Amino acid sequence: MDNAVEVKRAPSAPVGVTKAALQAEPREIELQLYAKREEIYPRQRIGDSLGFFQKWRWAAVWATQIVFYGLPWLQWNGRQALLFDLAARKFYIFGMVMWPQDIIYLTAILIIAALTLFLFTAIGGRLWCGYACPQTVYTEIFLWIERHIEGDRAKRMRLDKEPLSARKLALKTFKHGAWIAVALWTGFTFVGYFTPIRGLAVEVATFAAGGWSLFWILFYGFATYGNAGWMREQVCKYMCPYARFQSAMFDPDTLIVTYDRERGEPRGAGSKKTTRPEQGLGDCVECKLCVQVCPTGIDIRNGLQYECIGCAECIDACNYVMGKAGMPKGLIRYSTERALTEHYAAKGIWGHVLRPRVLVYAAILLAVTAALFVAVAVRVPLKVDVIRDRGALAREAEDGRIENTYRLQVMNTAERGQAFGITASGLPGLELASEPTFDLPGATTRSVLVRLRARPEDIPPGSSKVVIGVKSLDDPGVAVEEKTVFLGLKR
User: Fold this and answer.
1) For residue 399, what is the domain's CATH number?
2) Full domain range(s) for residue 269
3) Same domain, 475 and 394
4) What percent of the chain has pLDDT over 90?
5) What is the predicted pLDDT for the residue at 443?
6) How far is CA 344 from CA 11, 96, 304, 338, 349, in A?
7) Mean pLDDT in residue range 18-38
8) Rounded CA separation 217/195 (Å)
9) 287, 315, 344 — which closes off a domain?
């Protein structure tokens, strides 16, 4: 460009550095790139009793922990009802015994879990995070312990600001001791799903636990103690990937915890002498209880944020304040983005729940679940693999017939022992030259030698397809047939 003028700008001062500081003699300036974490002291109870959503959260805590801590001790047919025995490569799930070959069932279960998460997220946002996630559940348990030892929110804040004293040291020691006890019991229970828990309890009590068992108890216990006791909301904010990709499953009709800005703004405490509209104020009284009860420390009035775990604690707190102030509840409520902009009533909100995304998730989930149940229902508790004897492909027996040798790997996946019979077909005059029956205990594998013989004149050149069958003599419905080949000798 003609007559262009180059303008040189003086370097601007870094944020937080004054002009006088720049004109002074050079010196090192330290700038903080990351904000220091502010300790969060969630307030549990607003009023004399728990709110509606708080009761649901504690119901979820009780339900999940009764299942988690109690299930390993449940017995079934004289053994642990639910046990993933990695050493023996057997998974006991109540009346079923699963083997590594049954990995397809585990895959189906994982698919069902993922689709369930997608479905509930599309409908109600982060319901999993707010009510059933282990991080949320154990954080709530650890906070309950903290409140009962150190006191309510105000007392905990004062205690942390006090200088170290004998009282403070005793309270902190008691609290961390209780946390460690819960964490170790959690680690012990977790390992009990992979090692018979009754035997593990005896080993731990007698200090005879194996190295790997002890390692995983301590590892999982340390993870529980660190995540629920120390990091808490930081796990949800910075470590959990779900917080990052949840927006891909949200749409304008997803139910989320929302603040009604039109009704609440402008905020202010106001005066009791005149009405709030006369003072130019909305319904939000700026009590900030919604912030105090939030386990991640956010202000829901600033809009939806990825740190929000959908626990609805702020809804209970706000409804309590609205009730005391004589104003309608629901300033903070479960609603949708579309409902707020278009002012839907409750009927209009629920009318948009069954939308294409939800229907697709539900249809796929129903199909996969039905397929899994059908597959388990028709599953035959018998597996057979046929392996040819590589050392002797074919030989002439003493009676002049041609003999082929096979080795059957038979797996009885049922828990009770059974007697099995062996059959062979596929060639004229094909006969079994080995034992026709064998016994196999429950949940075991056995190698069975099978010899088949046929007359040379009945064997076509090359290889012939034959079928070896294994059938339970106690239950005719338990039968498996496997194809293999029968080799003749060159003439």
Assistant:
1) 2.60.40.10
2) 251-344
3) yes
4) 63
5) 86
6) 52, 49, 19, 8, 6
7) 60
8) 11
9) 344
The answer as to whether 108 is a domain residue is: no
CA distance 308 to 331: 17
Selection from 59, 120, 114, 53 nearest residue 255 by Cα: 120
- Final residue before a domain boundary, out of 294, 318, 344: 344
Query: Tokens 């035959």 sit at which residue?
Result: 380
Q: Mark whether 329 and 267 lie in a shared domain.
A: yes
Q: Does some domain include residue 100?
A: no
Residue the block writes with tokens 């922990």: 65
63 occurs within a structural domain? no
Average pLDDT of span 371-375? 93
- Write out the two tokens for 77: 């047919």
Q: What is the pLDDT of residue 346?
A: 83
Distance between CA 156 and CA 139 in Å, rounded?
16
Between CA 96 and CA 82 the distance in angstroms is 10
> Are 340 and 386 members of one domain?
no
Mark whether 324 and 414 lie in a shared domain: no
pLDDT for res 29: 61
Q: Would you say 106 and 359 are in contact if contact means Cβ atoms under 8 Å apart?
A: no
- Judge contact between 203 and 192, C-beta under 8 A: no
Same domain membership, residue 410 and residue 468: yes
Q: Is residue 309 part of a domain?
A: yes
Does 39 have pLDDT greater than 50?
yes
**pLDDT reported for residue 33:** 58
User: Percent of the chain, pLDDT > 70?
Assistant: 93
Instruction: Give the chain's length.
Output: 491
Kindly tell me the sign of the dihedral angle through the C-alpha atoms of 136, 141, 147, 150.
negative
CA dist 149 and 129 (Å) reads 26
> Over the chain, what HEC string results?
CCCCCCCCCCCCCCCCCCHHHHHCCCCCCCCCCCCCCCCCCCCCCCCCCCCHHHHHHHHHHHHHHHHHHHHHHCEECCEECEEEECCCCEEEECCEEECHHHHHHHHHHHHHHHHHHHHHHHHHCCHHHHHHCHHHHHHHHHHHHHHHHHCCHHHHHHHHHCCCCHHHHHHHHHHHHHHHHHHHHHHHHHHCCCCCHHHHHHHHHCCCCCHHHHHHHHHHHHHHHHHHHHHCHHHHHHHCCHHHHHHHHCCCCCCEEEECHHHHCCCCCCCCCCCCCCCCCCCCCCCCHHHHCCCCCCCHHHCCCCCCCCCCHHHHHHHHHHHHHCCCCCCEEEECHHHHHHCCCHHHHHHCCCCHHHHHHHHHHHHHHHHHHHHHHCCCCEEEEEEECCCCCCEECCCCCEEEEEEEEEEECCCCCEEEEEEEECCCCCEECCCCEEEECCCEEEEEEEEEEECHHHCCCCEEEEEEEEEECCCCCCEEEEEEEEECCCC
Q: Is the dihedral of CA 352, 119, 298, 304 positive or negative?
A: negative
